[in-house]
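Quick note —
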Amino acid sequence: MAFTAVLQSEWTKIRTVASTSWTLALVFLVTVGFAALFSATFDPNNLNAAQRATFDPTATSLSSMQLGQLAMIVFGVLVVSTEYSTGMIRTSLAAVPRREHFLLGKMAVATALALAVGLLTSFASFFLTQALLGDLGIGIGEENVLRAVTGAGLYLALLALFCMGVAAMLRSSVAAISVLVPFFLIVSNLLVSFEATRTVGQYLPSNAGGRIMQVVPNAFDSPETPYGPWGGFGILVLWTLAAVLGGYAVLRKRDA
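Predicted structure written out below.
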């Protein structure tokens, strides 16, 4: 099967499975909804002096990414693991014997879709919350703001790709979600919260990749990092590459 046909077949699979469409819709609704809620109820009088001095309107817009990314994790897992739970993987590999083409086609289509939804989500969150912040709001043309908002969309796309790689290794929706959700929601935040474990925690995918969304380095008392926004994004790229290669190695060596 030609690679273009692989892309078309993977697009058909994603488009016709309700769970993947719903998870992408939740990415948008949860992120934009909570961003609007945070901004509508935001009171600058509740900030201490240090927080007021480093207030970052862009970070306020993108703070709900922490919640929206959970739906993106589920999307990335389902795109791959559904093949195994339904037994479709045997038919897919019979139709596309070259396993690298099968995995590359699946990941390319799903990542492009995650990128489109991620960019739509980040820009909608930004413009809506800046309007709600009123005089505290900032324009997209201010220094580093466009990089942060675009970076949020890139972050979500890479997060989905990272989760696809992990799901390809574990080959189970339950196992992959049970590992990834606590890892991103609890472990990453805990490790970076304590001085003794911060050195390790700041190199984990979400903490390093999330640096690209910051315009003010120490906004909301966030700790300093030894890398900049693009350095952190590069660390996330390395994590993603490792996950994809791991998933490919498992797919290549193990029976369907």
